[in-house]
Amino acid sequence: MSHFDLHSHTTCSDGKLSPQELINLALENNITDLAITDHDTVAAHRQLENVKDLGLNLISGVEFSGQWAKIGIHIVGLNIDINSEVILKAEAHQNKIRLERLERIAYKLEKRGFSNILEGALEEAGGNQVGRPHIARYMLKEGMVRSISSAFDKYLGAGKVGDVSSLWPDIEDTVEWINQAGGIAVIAHPGRYKMTRSKRIRLIQDFKDCGGSALEVCTGNQPNGMAEDLANICEQYDLMASVGSDFHSPSYQWVKLGRYPRLPKKCRPVWEAF
Predict the structure, then answer these.
(1) Helix, strand, or coil here: 176?
(2) How many domains does the chain have?
(3) Which pLDDT score, from 0 to 100, does residue 191 have?
C-alpha cells in the first residue's frame, strides 16, 4: 500500500536532516513516495540524482516563497523538472531576495541591540539556503533568546520586527515557474495562514485563476476539521488534494514524517496527475 509524504525539508534549506538521512527516515517509516520540498532550492534533489536505488519513489519538489495581499504564502511545486531553465532562474532569483531580506532583518534587529545577525545566520546556514530559522538558531546559541519559538514569537514571526515579506514575488509568478517546469502548483498548509475563511477562499480563487492546481488538504499539526473543510473547497473549485507532514526535524514532536490527517474520500489525489 502506498504511503505518501509530499512536503518535507532537509539541511539544504531549514531542515535538520541531510537528504540521505531524510530518505533513511522515510524508509524507516514505510513511506513509499516522498517529495523533498526545500525552501526555494532543489539542491537536495541534485545531491541524490546519482544515487541509483533510494528504496522509494522520490518526487522532485520545491517550496517557493511568495506573497498575496501582503501576506507571505508558500507554494509547493511537485513533479518539476529540476534542471529546467526556469527553475535555475527561480532559484537564483529567490536566493537574491533571501539575502536582501536577511540584510533587512539583520539591520532591524541590530537597531534593537542584537549584533552580528547577518554573519551569524549565514554561518548557521552553512552555505545552504538561508532563512529566519537560521537567525533564530544563532540568537538562541548566543543567548539572545530562550528558545527558537521565543525568537519567532518576539522578533521573527508574523507582524514582528523581523517579518519582511514584501520582497517575495506574487504567487502568480511562483505558480508560473512551477507550471513552466512541468510541475503541479500546490498551496502549502492553507489553514496555517492568519486569515479568515473568506479571505482564504479569495486566496484560493486567485491561485486557481493564475494556474494553480492543488491544495495541501492534509498536513502535520493541523486543527481538527480543517482537512474536511479544505476537501470541500477542492471539490468546489475543481482542485486536486495533496498531503504532507511539512517535516523539518526529528526533535519536533508535533510534526512527524509521514504523519498527517487522513485524506477525505471525496478528494482527487494530486499524485494521480504525476
Answers:
(1) helix
(2) 2
(3) 94
Check which CATH number belongs to the domain holding 59 and give it.
3.20.20.140
pLDDT at 213 over 90: yes
Q: Coil, helix or strand for 108?
A: helix
Quickly tell me which residue has 520545491 as its cell. Answer: 62
Mean pLDDT over each residue of the chain, to the nearest integer: 95
> Grid coordinates representing 204?
484560493
Task: Tell me what the mean pLDDT of segment 146-173 comes to.
Answer: 90
Helix, strand and coil percent figures for the chain, each rounded to 5: 40, 15, 40
Q: Which residue has the cell 510534526?
A: 255
Instruction: Give the sign of the dihedral formed by CA 222, CA 223, CA 227, CA 229.
Output: negative
Task: Output the nine-digit C-alpha cell for 228.
Answer: 474536511
CATH value at residue 130? 1.10.150.650
CB neighbour class for 26 (10 Å; exposed up to 12, middle 13-18, buried from 19): buried
Supply the pTM of this predicted model. Answer: 0.91
Q: Residue for cell digits 533587512?
A: 104
Domain span including residue 114 = 102-156
